[in-house]
Amino acid sequence: MTEKKSKRNEGLLIFGRWTSKIGDIVFDYVNSVVLVHAFTKSSWVLALYQSSQTIVQIIFNLIGGAIADGGKRKKILITTDLLSAIVCLIASFFVQSKLVAVALISANAFLALIFAFSSPTFKAIVREMVSKERIVKYNSISNAGKELISMAGPIIGVALMSLVGARGSLIINAITFFISAISECLLVKLESEEKKEDGKEKKNIIKDIKEGLKYLYNEKPVFALLVLSALVNFFLAGYNLLLPYTDIMYEGVFEGFYAKAMAAEAIGAIFGSLINSKIPSSFSNKYSSLTIFLGLNGASLLLVPLVNIPRNQILCLLPIVLFGASLTIFNINLMSYVQVNVAEEFLGRVFSVIFTVAVMFMPLGSWFFSIFNFAENINSFAIVGAGIVVLSLIYLFFVHPGELKEGK
């Protein structure tokens, strides 16, 4: 009975996540197109639109995690999706007005605020709705669909823009969030006994955040993974900075290599999700396995300068496919490890810290790799890859002795 309920919840969660993902991608695409055409000579408007999301998430992620751990995660998800639908609906009335910039930037900031509450909640609620034995498989399938949607999202955005215009696209966008909210209404907790939240002592947000940080610090395996993911994001920022420059690196050799590399990474991510669903959870949900997956991720980038020598486009794209696959496997199992090993009442706060640290370290990495002018040199991929490999080896052999080796 529990397995049947778990599978039903998995279907609803996956459907809700995929539907919301379509809404997110279409929202960003439509708004970017509208702002670019409305402010062709004022690129700072689009920059402000994009940066508003990062700033809001840094400020509110920790608060969102604390709220998620206060209970009623299902209600939080339903409420945030309904609010997202309302924001998209209101924004649709301003796309052809003089207030379009203010409206769309404000809408993006509001959605980022909503995401700061919904994202840790969505990650945390998996523990309540999916059996531990099926969490890795659930995350693999969910991630594979998300990557497919990431590839198809801009195409969907183009089709909607041509068929119903910007306003119609945002209205359809609102409908996707509304459908997601309906699917979440049907979720049923696995345990028959609900949390006794009424008798729970009321705590203020600051105290909840402090308790979450204290718990995370005391859980050494999870804390070590947090530090590892932060350091990895530093190097991944270097990869994200380098990838667009592949058009210049391969100029005169391959046309439009960057676009093909993005597609190759997405294809690798899909394969990684499918491969991970076949890996036994007894192996993948181990601390040491995570560092091995991470090492493979770095090793794939070490191949980039090597495969450049024959100047064969398929060979040059192969390391990017391997990078997408190995990074996806690492991310899925990192998320699954946290969902399985962290106490349920702290899941939201732990995920919010992970998200906040990830957002903060990416700009630092971008700044570092840009200052030292690593761009335009194909060998720079090997520097990023070597950094990730060294990190994985340090963690594999030195950072987690004893209990840290396999987690708790």
Short note summarizing the structure:
With 408 residues, the chain is an all-alpha fold. The chain contains 15 helices and no strands.
Q: Assess the beta-strand content as a share of residues.
A: under 5%
User: In DSSP terms, counting alpha (H) and pi (I) runs of 4 or more, how many helices?
Assistant: 15
Major β-sheet annotation: none
What share of residues is helical? over 70%
Protein traits:
408 residues; Growth Hormone, Chain: A; 2 domains; 15 helices; disordered C terminus
Describe, in plain words, how this protein is organized in 3D.
By secondary structure, this protein is mainly α. It folds into two domains: 2-185, Growth Hormone, Chain: A, CATH 1.20.1250.20; 205-400, MFS general substrate transporter like domains (Growth Hormone, Chain: A). It has helices at 2-38, 43-68, 73-92, 100-129, 135-185, 205-218, 220-242, 246-249, 257-278, 281-284, 287-302, 304-307, 313-341, 347-371, 380-399. α3 (73-92) packs antiparallel against α4 (100-129) and α11 packs antiparallel against α13. The model is unreliable at 192-200 and 401-408 (pLDDT under 50).
Write the layout of secondary structure elements.
Elements: H1 2-38, H2 43-68, H3 73-92, H4 100-129, H5 135-185, H6 205-218, H7 220-242, H8 246-249, H9 257-278, H10 281-284, H11 287-302, H12 304-307, H13 313-341, H14 347-371, H15 380-399
Helix pairs in contact: 1-4, 1-5, 2-4, 2-6, 2-14, 3-4, 3-5, 4-14, 5-9, 5-13, 7-14, 7-15, 9-13, 11-13, 11-15
